[in-house]
Amino acid sequence: MEVRDEKLERETEHQMRVMLKGAVEVVGAEELRVKVEQSIRTGEPLRVKFGMDPSAPDIHLGHAVVLRKLKQMQDMGHRIMVVIGDVTARIGDPTGKSKGRKALSDKEVMENAQTYLEQIFQIMDREKTEVYYNGEWLELLKLEEILHLASTVTVARLLERDDFQNRYKNNVPIGLHEFFYPLMQAYDSVAIGADIELGGTDQTFNILMGRNLQKSQGLSPQAAIFMPLLVGLDGVEKMSKSLNNYIGVKEDAKVMFKKVMEVPDALIIRYFELATDEMPERIDVIKEELASGKNPRDVKLELAEIITGLYHGKEETERARNYYQEAFGRKENPEDVPDLEIPWECSTLRSLLPIAAAAGLGFSSSELRRITSQGGVRINGTRADSLEVQVADGDVLKIGKKHFLKLRKTP
Amino acid sequence: MEVRDEKLERETEHQMRVMLKGAVEVVGAEELRVKVEQSIRTGEPLRVKFGMDPSAPDIHLGHAVVLRKLKQMQDMGHRIMVVIGDVTARIGDPTGKSKGRKALSDKEVMENAQTYLEQIFQIMDREKTEVYYNGEWLELLKLEEILHLASTVTVARLLERDDFQNRYKNNVPIGLHEFFYPLMQAYDSVAIGADIELGGTDQTFNILMGRNLQKSQGLSPQAAIFMPLLVGLDGVEKMSKSLNNYIGVKEDAKVMFKKVMEVPDALIIRYFELATDEMPERIDVIKEELASGKNPRDVKLELAEIITGLYHGKEETERARNYYQEAFGRKENPEDVPDLEIPWECSTLRSLLPIAAAAGLGFSSSELRRITSQGGVRINGTRADSLEVQVADGDVLKIGKKHFLKLRKTP
To answer: Which of A104, A190, A375, B122 has its CA 20 to 30 A from that of B263?
Structure first.
């Protein structure tokens, strides 16, 4: 008996470590431990909720932080229940005040949801993921039930939510229907009997409301695990497409590999925690290596290989690594390449050329465009076949036979 | 044609005067005039909404202010639509925070509504009154419709309502469901297509919300007529049973007559406006008479006769008047009766006796009780046959053969 208990404890400890790896906060940690232990003992998987709005963005590593964690839970045998907020999406913002919240048709909702699901299944195991649309239960609610639901929360509590508080203070109208959205999300937790809900820190309020609603209905409250926002390649802002400091999960293996190599050294461990499925024990080892003087570039090569490997095959990753090392090896490029400072927003060759023209090489913008169209411009040794070729920090630009510039993006 | 238009104008003017007689405020007066004119021209009655909570209080003249106005509209041919908030009553306050808002069963709601209706039909014409339960339409609403409804109002606007504002400021919880109650009342106006809604000034917020909701749905907005709270017999506080400054509509004709005679002189016109169906023109005449020195006591005799006549037959009213004049004539009572000051709350002989005992007549409380039980106490000349006999300001108390006291209630 004692031996088995020890094993149970070890396994519980392991699952807890994986679940909380990189998390900013967990609410209900003690309850979570009990749930995990019980799940291991009985073999009954935990029900892990992930709510999503079918607004279908292109997924990047920032979005993937939560999805990877779900994948890790899936790997430990738990049930992932994705809840798509189709009701919310179909209603949108009837006041028309918020552009992002326009009402979608049934068809649009389904299409958006499909696009989004396709993307998340690049990370999670499709076979082991259950997908729900919350209209299934929300549309069955009668007025009396809705009012009962509403009675479980106070106006003051809702006004504490940061965005509501700010809008209220600044006299930006809040429609009464908006107060319902968190409540509906909370009810989703009741409807599917969630044991755990996972989300970004921006979801704190809604996820905790789910927990409270479960309690108020006499149910075991879900543990809430909050994942941080991933800082982007600029090392400052959260990863976002509009800031162009992102790594998209659909990016070409070479681009992805190269971008990971641009991660600031200070963020290496964070990326291991949030953007890979590496076990906490392994990450501890890497931390120690870095602390005892290992070259961050070598650690990043490993990170780039792991991350690229998650989204591309082993072979492609191998190729991307070789390409990277070749391009940034010293074969093609001379040792001392002058830097060309370009702003972060500058992401294509086209946007870069006017800056290069100003660098004193003697080419005008239009000459540079012509040279490009004639195949006379290379990036990291590869011929740039259009003006739309992507460029990144650290890329080496070769113009004609003898002019080299190393791109230095400035935040 | 011109002659007919003049008649239309005169009739419109008359109806407007009746509708607005005694009102504190009307919102949408211009629209109201158009509606009234149209109604007179087409013969189509206006739809007048009156919302009520089936909480069944005993009705007094304070409650009757709005009901009398409805009766007057009824007399002009308009449709009175009483909307009973059965949904609200059945839901109550699920938080259990408010005692007054406990959830009622279907049966209780129906019973309460019945009791209340019986009372209002002492004032209004039962045959010409339509009764609705708002569950009829509210229970058909789907989540999406409810949320659309909610989107028509902002949180800030709701928080402006006095009671919400006070509670929010003083950290007294407001359940989110409470924000729905005004909205549901507002929706009632849409559902029945109200042209006019009538209510006390405490209903301002809700009634105006109905108006706005109609507008936002592209409907002609209801005119809102707000009636003041009737000041009670103490001349200070609003009429209320708990302050014992009220005249109940079910009170005995003699009591009612006598109580009207206690109305402070300054309130005579107000009572004519709010507690009788007298036409504005008639009230103008009375105003003038008072201004030119007519004895207020004589005007009050007329008021008492009119009010008593509204709730009792002509004969009974006659008898009440004679009784009053006899009791307060000089037959039985000596000219100079000393005053006995008693507090307003003091409404029965029982509660009065300890004070009378202290008045220096030489009777103890228990002696006074004995004398009463032996038939030795008279009020306004009538033998007090129990300790529960009601007493009022101005009553003359006779103890034994020779002791007289005139009761003076002090606020």
So the answer is: B122
The residue among A335, A350, A353, A333 whose CA lies nearest residue A395 is: A333
Helix (H) or strand (E) holding B403: strand B403-410
Residues of chain B with pLDDT under 50: 1, 330-332
Where do the H-state alpha helices sit in A21-105?
Answer: 29-42, 61-75, 86-91
- Closest CA–CA distance from residue A165 to any residue of chain B (Å): 11
Residues 87-146 of A with CB under 8 A from B: 87, 90-91, 93-95, 138-139, 141-144, 146
Look at residue A329 and tell me whether its pLDDT is greater than 90. Answer: no
Neighbours of A334 (CB within 10 A): 10
What pLDDT is recorded for position B379? 85
Q: Is B275 at the interface with chain A, CB within 8 A?
A: no
The H or E element spanning position A396 is strand A396-399
* pLDDT recorded at residue A77: 96
How far is A31 from chain B, CA to nearest CA, in Å?
A: 27
Nearest to B155 among A144, A147, A179 (CB): A179
Residue pLDDT, tens place only, B150-188? 999 999 999 998 889 999 999 999 999 999 989 999 999
Gap from A10 CA to chain B (nearest CA, Å): 44
pLDDT of residue B98: 58
Q: What residue in A sits closest to B93 (Cα-Cα)?
A: A151
Rounded to whole angstroms, the Cα distance separating A348 from A355 reads 12
Q: Are the beta carbons of B155 and A153 separated by less than 8 Å?
A: no
Nearest to B138 among A143, A152, A156 (CB): A143
Bridge-based pairing state of the strands A396-399 and A403-410: antiparallel
Report the residue from B93, B155, B175 with minimal CB separation from A168.
Answer: B155
Can you tell me which residue has the tokens 């299944």? Answer: A121
> Is A156 part of the contact surface with chain B (CB cutoff 8 Å)?
yes
Phi, psi values for residue A165, rounded to 5°: -55, -50
Q: Are strands A382-383 and A377-379 parallel, antiparallel or unpaired?
A: antiparallel
- Average per-residue pLDDT in chain B? 88
What mean pLDDT comes out for the span A314-332? 81
Eight-class DSSP state of B100: G
Q: Which pLDDT belongs to residue A331?
A: 47
pLDDT, mean of residues A85-102: 67
**From CA A271, how far away is CA A46, in angstroms rounded?**
27
The full 3-state SS of A191-222, as one line of letters, equals HHCCCEEEEEHHHHHHHHHHHHHHHHCCCCCC
List the end-to-end C-alpha distance of chain A, in Å, as a whole number: 59
Q: Which residues of B touch A186 (CB under 8 A)?
A: none
| Greatest C-alpha distance within chain A | 81
Question: What is the model's pLDDT at position B100?
Answer: 52
For residue B146, the one-letter residue type is: I
Beta carbons of B142 and A90 less than 8 angstroms apart: no
Q: What is the pLDDT of residue B56?
A: 59
Q: Residue B337: its pLDDT value, please?
A: 77
One-letter amino acid of A157? R
